Amino acid sequence: MQHRAEWTSFPLTWGVPGGACDSHETPEATALRETAEETGLREHQLRILDAQVTTGPYAADPNRPELAGGWQYHTVYALADEELQTFPNEESLELRWVPLADVDSLDLLPAFAQSWPGVRAHAEKLLGEARR
Question: Among 14, 60, 93, 96, who pairs with 69 as Cys (CB 3.0-4.6 Å)?
Fold first, then answer.
């Protein structure tokens, strides 16, 4: 989990590393790039299990005309073979491995909090399948 820096949108909340897709990227490629930038974890250390749209699409924001409407959050699920050391960049106050059962105890980024029940259920399903 990523404890978001004070200068980010929704500061001091917790979420997962992420960011906007470049025009040529898939959600999976974006997740790998953003994870590397924000945590130091590299593609060869992770195995992508699945990706799904978890919130949105959102309408355009008249207060931020540079942002087009129709965007949505994708959650990309990945697995590492072990708990890996992370290296936070300036977007994070802290990075922490958090058991699924404990995520609810954190002050979550609002969009992540909205999606969390479904994300948790899907993550538990994927973990069960990966352990077989």
Answer: 60
Long-range CB contact pairs, 16-20, < 8 A, 24+: 16/75, 16/112, 17/92, 17/95, 18/73, 20/71
Q: What is the largest CA-CA distance in the chain?
A: 49
Is residue 28 within 8 Å of 48, Cβ to Cβ? yes
Taking the CA of residue 85 as centre, how many other CA atoms within 13 Å lie in the half-sphere pointing to its CB? 1
What is the pTM for the complete model shown?
0.88
How many angstroms from the chain centroid is the CA of residue 87? 16
Angle at 83 between CA 118 and CA 127, to 5 degrees: 35
* Structure token digits, residue 118: 């479904």
| pLDDT tens-digit map of 35-45 | 999 999 999 99
Report the alpha-carbon distance of residue 100 to residue 118 in Å, rounded.
12
Alpha-carbon distances, residue 31 vs 17, 44, 124 (angstroms): 8, 13, 19
If you search the block for the tokens 């087009």, which residue do you land on?
68
**How far apart, in whole angstroms, are the C-alpha atoms of residue 112 and residue 10?**
11
Q: What are phi and psi of 15, to 5 degrees?
A: -155, -160
